[in-house]
Amino acid sequence: MSLTIESGRVVEIHYTLRDDTGEVMDTSDGDEALMYLHGSGHIVPGLERALEGKTVGDAVTVRVPPEDGYGVRDAERVLRVSRKDIPAGPEPEVGMELEAEGPDGDPLMLWVADIQGDEITLDGNHPLAGKTLHFEVAVHSVRDATEDEKHHGHVHGPDGHHH
Ligand code: ZN
Questions:
Q1: Under 8 Å CB-to-CB from 58, ≥6 apart: which residues?
Q2: What is the Å distance from ligand 1's center to 152 Cα?
Q3: 160 C-alpha to center of ligand 1: Å?
Q4: Region for 103 from its dihedrals, namely left if φ exceeds 0, alpha if ψ lies in -120 to 50, beta otherwise
Q5: Cα–Cα distance measured from residue 25 to residue 126, given in angstroms and rounded to the nearest whole number
Q6: How many angstroms does the Cα of residue 111 sit away from the middle of ligand 1?
Q7: If you measure from the C-alpha of residue 104 to the centroid of ligand 1, how many angstroms do you get, rounded to a whole number?
Q8: Per-residue pLDDT tens digits for 3-54
Q9: pLDDT per residue over 82-113, tens digit each?
Q10: What is the distance between the alpha carbons of residues 120 and 78, in angstroms, rounded to a whole number?
Q11: Which of 55, 64, 100, 148 has the most crowded Cβ, counting Cβ within 10 A?
């Protein structure tokens, strides 16, 4: 009897993520399956909903609009700074991720979007924000989460606690 995917179960999936043009943006192909705790918001909401009720061996193809994916792009999260305002470290390159301190003191991830001479454009939107996501997923395993995992809200490794 195989379990179906529902909140509080640990699920392993293999997946390929493509954009509207069919270009592969991310895949677990050739890598380990992705393991996550269903219902905990670790994967994008549109994919989590599509997997609900599925079981081992099921294949799921789903199109996820930005609002159920990594969100719509927010133009206010794009800022231009001068090179001297970037903290000392490796030379900034397009695509590089920088950690800054947000207005509330929480860490804020920024991506280097563009460099024009001394002017650097930083983008606080997730790189996949605004994109429609096309997932192909194969369900690899489903098991009940342990009490510890449910309590912590994340998956623990095969040998128990890893953090
Ligand atoms: Zn834990």
A1: 138, 139
A2: 5
A3: 9
A4: alpha
A5: 13
A6: 29
A7: 26
A8: 999 999 999 999 999 999 999 999 999 999 999 999 999 999 999 999 999 9
A9: 988 887 778 889 989 888 887 788 888 899 99
A10: 11
A11: 64
